[in-house]
Write a structure and sequence with these properties.
The chain is of the alpha/beta class. The protein has one domain: Nucleotidyltransferase, domain 5. Helices cover 23% and strands 30% of the residues. It has a 5-stranded mixed beta sheet with strand order 3-2-1-4-5, with helices on both faces. The longest helix is centred in the last third of the chain and has 12 residues. The chain starts with a helix and ends with a helix. The relative contact order is 0.22.
Length: 143
Amino acid sequence: MGKRDGEYILAGQIELDDGFFSTVKPEESKDKKLKRGRGSQKRTKVLVMAESHKVVSVKKGLKPRRVGYLKMQIIEDLKKETINQIVKDLVSEKSSLDTYGSTSYVELSEYVNEHYSEVIAKEKVGEILPWVHITISNAKDNF
């Protein structure tokens, strides 16, 4: 199944965001001082993408978008070159991307049909990128 999943290309409307997952430190490096924040060695960086299609008539209590396939890719850094290459490899060029306004995402419009990017208040992230954030939350809950 892993091989088949690796060959699948995401298409249509795609939500994209990055997430950070706690990393277990090896015993021999427990005494070393680690960075804090986004560059911390205590965190593994993961790029999360979800096919997300708008629902025409939303029933009360349901999400305004329906989820399709998901992809999560561990990444070494959050540089735009790294993210550009992953999008180029894993997302159809006919797709549309929804992202928040990160400088790492500024060139994504070169690899897809449309790229919608906006600065999102923390309280609104679940409305703009619902399935990516549900995916990140569920993955963190299982670790």
